[in-house]
């Protein structure tokens, strides 16, 4: 496809020497699209390797570099395509060149879509799988005999390693489930303790309300007793005065009786004489 | 209920066991020992009827216990961890070459004690101990509320009584004031009576001295 476009471009250059300068952007776009196609094919091959025993950190690194490379190519080709489009609008070129440029733009769109699809697939697989760790950095839980296996492994040994890794993953899942159960039970216990502390808090609040009310009651009692004390003191004073007045009354009564006695005595003496 | 059966084994060989009740836990435990997959350290629980078998394998030594389903997981696995440590500390390397039931005579007593401890003692688990302490605090506070309510009732009675006393002392004061007034008026009347009597006597004496009721000789 791209090669046919390049072949279609050449007759124009051979026929019209005056327009050689204007052919360069179109040819550059065609070359860029070709390179992007090649890079995307490489990228797809790397993506297909994800999730297999060949999936290693090195492969991840290569995948990353290829992605960056494709990004750069897309940027350059996009700029050239824009340049070619500007030339088509400003200069008066023939219709066949415009058609060729439009076709290149369509090819560019198609290759971009393909790259985006491959990129999405790569993201999914990178998340789903973890890279296969090379021999030198095997986890310490492997036995010494497995660690001593040489770098040139047969496919059977590689399959055994994969099986061992799968069992390790199952073991970890089991541990995770166990720890989650323990944590859940502990959380339930802590929830109960929290509930009881809440109840104790409510009880303390109620107690505070009761004690405050009883404080008011005790204030009432205090004021009642003080009023009683004052009234009793006043009553005592009144009674003291009454007592003094009563003693005076007694004196006056005696005096009156004495006077009456004397008068009677005088009357009797006068009558006797 | 709690933990009813405990066992310590190496691979599928039973080294020590203890059963708190007469059940078929021993047979089921042996089946579990043979069925546990792999050789890695593991924690796993199998349920059977109302009981759960908790298994912990570390460094080739397997500790197993059967617990009631209400015991949860935290306490049984704490029990397994404790038994494992005691066993390793007591017998050390001998566990790898011991005969079946080689430690049963000594260690079954330890199993029994620890089963009792983890089944009954709330101190076996910090969360349960804290729960118990919070329950005690709550009970004490409920008692405090009851006592304060009783105190409130008695304070209400005391308020009523002191109010009555206040009323009575007010009436006492009023009557005392009235009594003082009465006595004062009586005193006034006696004084007036005395003055009148004295005036009469003076008049009679003057009448005699002046030779007549109209007092003609003196004026």
TrEMBL record, chain A:
Keywords: Acetylation, Coiled coil, Membrane, Protein transport, Transmembrane, Transmembrane helix, Transport
Chain spans, region Disordered: 1-23
Domain T-SNARE coiled-coil homology intervals: 180-242
GO biological process: intracellular protein transport; late endosome to vacuole transport; vesicle docking; vesicle fusion
SUPFAM superfamilies: t-snare proteins
Main location: membrane
Gene Ontology cellular component terms for the protein in this record: endomembrane system; SNARE complex
Xref: PROSITE patterns: SYNTAXIN, T_SNARE
Protein name: t-SNARE coiled-coil homology domain-containing protein
Source species: Glycine max (Soybean)
Biological classification of the source: Eukaryota, Viridiplantae, Streptophyta, Embryophyta, Tracheophyta
Chain's gene name: LOC547656
From TrEMBL, chain B:
Membrane topology, as annotated: Single-pass type IV membrane protein
Gene Ontology terms describing biological process: protein transport; vesicle-mediated transport
Subcellular location: Prevacuolar compartment membrane; Vacuole membrane
Transmembrane segment boundaries: 187-209
InterPro entries: Longin-like_dom_sf, Longin_dom, Synaptobrevin-like, Synaptobrevin-like_transport, V_SNARE_CC
Main location: membrane
Domain Longin per the UniProt entry, residue ranges: 7-111
Name of the protein in its database record: Vesicle-associated membrane protein 713
Annotated organism of origin: Glycine soja
